[in-house]
Amino acid sequence: MNLIRRLISSHCLFYRVTGLYCPGCGGKRSVYLLFHGHPLLSLWYHPLVLYGIGVLLYYSICLGRRLLSRSSTEKSIATWPLWGAVILLAGNVLLKNILLVAFHITPLSSHIY
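Predicted structure:
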């Protein structure tokens, strides 16, 4: 258990060097919180985790429908989830770094323990 806490609370190299959050900062904590029944905190730490689960469910349902219908027409995979992920990731990094630099608010302080 101590090892898990150390892994989750460790900062990335980008954060250590620049003092800014990278696009992946908060991802481990988000997964940890989601698995421990805290979806709203998980969403705050890194919204891409819940978004990714939703996209996987969407693609799974689409693939299942395609396989069950045995449709001979091949449809291309929708690209909107990828663009949504890029926009969400950029917005997340900008918001958290603005809070950190401009207002000295550390949005990724530990709520886990």
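Summary: DSSP finds six helices and no strands in the chain.
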